[in-house]
Write a structure and sequence with these properties.
7 strands, 1 helix, about 20% helix
Amino acid sequence: MKRRITILVGCLLLFLIGVAIGHLLSVPVAASGAGQYKRSPDDKLVAFADTLDDGSLLGPHRTYCRLMIQTVPPSPRTIRSARIEDTAVPPIDWREEGSIVWASNSSAVTFKCDARQTSVEMTLKIEP
């Protein structure tokens, strides 16, 4: 009788450990990736271009480009943001293949990916 209880408790313990490990491997991890940034000519805004990968350790992954314009630190505030799914293999490496070009009056910013011949322009409203 003691042996059956020991085997049952051991099996239950192994099952619970397996469930806990499975849960930990399916929890989403923070997005990781790399990119670049560039300040505007008037030093009031900063443009960011990143390629990020997020998902769980064993589950599906998703790769996307995040293009963003923020005010300068210490209290950054997002002005414009765009998220573009990146289905290219390999994904865009903004450090090597991309560039950020500001208009001379800081009214627009163009994100260019030279390798994919792609560009996205974000225009800002300039107050008089």
